[in-house]
Amino acid sequence: MRTLLLVIIAAVLLNPALAAERLWQELSDPSLTEVASNFRNPPSEYSMTFYWGWDGPVTEEVITRDLKEYSSNNVRAVTLEAGYRMTAAYLSPEWFKLVKYTVQQARLNDMHVWLVDEGKYPSGFAGGRFSELRPDLTMQTFRVTERFDVGGGETVDRQVKDNTICAVAVNETDGVSKVLEPVNGRLNWTAPEGQWQVQVVEQQFRTSATRSVNNPKIGQKDGTHALCDYLKPEAVAKFIEWTHEEYKKVVGDEFGKTVLGFRGDEPDYGIIPWTNTIIEEFKKRKGYDVRPFLASFTQRRGLTEQQQRVKADYWDVWSSVFSENFFGTQSKWCAQNNLEYLVHLNHEDQMTGLARSEGDFFRCMRQVQMPGVDAIWSQIWPDKVADYPKYASSAAHLFGRPRAFTESFAAYKPSPNLEQAMWILNHQIVRGINMVEVMWIPASSNGRSGMRGWLADERFAGAAMYLNRVCYVLSQGRPAAQIGLYYPSYSLWLGHDEADKNVLAVTQQLLENQRDFDFVDEQTVSSVMKLEGDRFTNLSGQSYRAIIVPPITAISKMSLDRLKKFAQNGGKVIFLGDAPALVVEKTFLDARGPADISWAIRESSGGLTENVLKALPEPDVSLGQVSPAVKYLHRRLSDADVYFFFNESNEKLSCTATLRAAKGQVQIWNPLTGDMEPVPGASAENGVIRLPLEMGTYGTELVVVGDVKRVAAKAVARP
Fold first, then answer.
1. Is the CATH number 3.20.20.80 carried by domain 2-133+208-476?
2. Helix (H, G, I), strand (E, B) or coil at 506
3. Which residue among 50, 242, 432, 498 has its CA within the 20 to 30 Å range from the CA of 97?
């Protein structure tokens, strides 16, 4: 993180113009007057964007037509993705010629372009170039290729393949294992007393499946075009050379202006990660040899406690390298080139799956300028509990990023109409998402209008402007939640998936009680946040006065020590359920426990009881009636407070709302019309605001508290 910040600072010092150009993506503390002056017509950098797939014979005429159509519907940005059956092959000179034309036309239309970093997904195969030109840099794994028994006194003498990592002999009597090193391509070993099984472990080039527009089998997701080795610096450098650097040659003069950044998509492992240097890296970080345990990682079940702990250590190591090498390298490149890097992972709605394929959501997103999630396959729908967008917004808050994005509506079944689509987006916005990417619009190269389905609705232009205004306002200032909820990645690495269910249950209870929060991860608690008296302060300058730890298996000693100090300083630390069974220092293998939490508040039931709610900081929002369906988001400007409410139910709400705000009068800002109106019957006294809150079915309200008299006068005078 420090390295990334230094890169950004250095870039700005070398070119002061960059500072002004990047204001839209930097944390800021604008005044209410500044925000109000932009509310009706927000800067185009905050526009929603269409995920614009170039299917078919895209031409300059098609590009010109589509951009004008999108702009006329208040969509001021596009996310450019390669499509199928294009006449200009992805990454070919003809492709880049069309990209250059697109950027020129976008600039003429006061629009912006996000560049997808791959020809479909997952990111990292460079349209097939790794398979075709550098197979030595493709993704790797390992597997056990042979098992055979050896009795005491017997000698093994056999040839092994060049890609053999090692062989491991396990004494089936007492479990003792020995690493057998091949010498000149041969295994030569005489077994001591006992009955041994020898397992031969081989490295293999094997990729997670990819869907590539350059795949001859159109539309197939398979291994034809292999991903690069995410853990190898040379491979990631080559990926950037073949993609980012080529775009820079063509449209680099518009980086940070018309072109806002690179968009990644679902980089992950569908295999056990491996790279040639991982054994040395593991020993450097953990202090012991992982090879005796590699074969056990390939077992789906039945691991001993020792094997599971070593597997957790392995996950800790490879996920760190993944974060630093793949995400960190791209993020630094983008920062050096006045661009943003935005990406979402795979399985955000199922973190147990994400832990297996990407290691740790927050560790990956720590490097990223704009964290994201996707909402596909009806993951978010009125009959489902789907609070996972808070992972992306929490990451943005923790790591000092002003924005978090959603990719929404790919393969949605049933396809939403406009009202349903807005419900899905408001559901994410109230959970902290403030950049909307709609994956619904193909390029209209086949002669059909690019606007289809609910996007052809005559109300869509108004809906797009609503999103632009809401996302603009909710990107300003700083987040204000006072509660941190510890996310238990350590427990998932240890195979205790129940920890994810526990944290999701607490998440739902907090939101339904109007207690907003951020997830906080292990590294944030242990080292990233500043401990300032009775507060933990994240990189957004946001302070948490309480940390809730749901029922978990393991926690680091550093986090435990910092939480104890936080509690001693007057902060609230609440453990739900039993104390963590393991306290991890350098390794999971040597972890001991249980943790001593005698200094903390403990709720033995493991749930969010009334006593726990009373122990939390005074709420920002209190409603005059029990309303689980009403969610809210609170941000602070330099001189004002902004609250966004969403009624997720089909029942109207009419109650008195009590808000915590520094001072000022109350207005309702209407994102649909751009109007800013006072709230009759609202009162303010001693930092407490009371107002009548009237919300229709699936309604939203944007409430602003500050010195609104000058703002109202300015708004009336504005043309």
1. yes
2. helix
3. 50
Neighbours of 670 (CB within 10 A): 16
pLDDT grade for 446, boundaries at 50, 70 and 90: low
Mean pLDDT value across residues 623-641 = 96
The answer, yes or no, to whether residue 5 has pLDDT greater than 60, is no
**Crossing angle between the packed helical segments 32-39 and 708-717, to the nearest 10 degrees:** 30
* Residue 303 bridge partners (DSSP): none
Going by their DSSP bridges, the two strands 665-669 and 676-678 should be labelled as antiparallel
Judge whether 561 and 569 are in contact, CB under 8 Å.
no
CATH number belonging to the domain at 479-615, selected among 3.40.50.1980, 3.90.1150.10, 3.40.50.880, 3.20.20.70: 3.40.50.880
Distances (CA, A) of 284 to 17, 287, 291, 318, 587: 42, 6, 14, 12, 12
Residue percentage of the chain with pLDDT more than 70: 93
* CA max distance for the chain: 95
Query: CB–CB of 219/120 below 8 Å?
Result: no
Contact of 581 with 554, CB cutoff 8 Å? yes
CB-CB neighbours of 699 under 10 Å: 17
Contacts for 713 with CB less than 8 Å, ≥ 6 apart: none
What is the C-alpha separation between 318 and 286, in angstroms, rounded? 12
Q: Quick one: tokens of 47?
A: 């526009």
> DSSP state, 131?
H
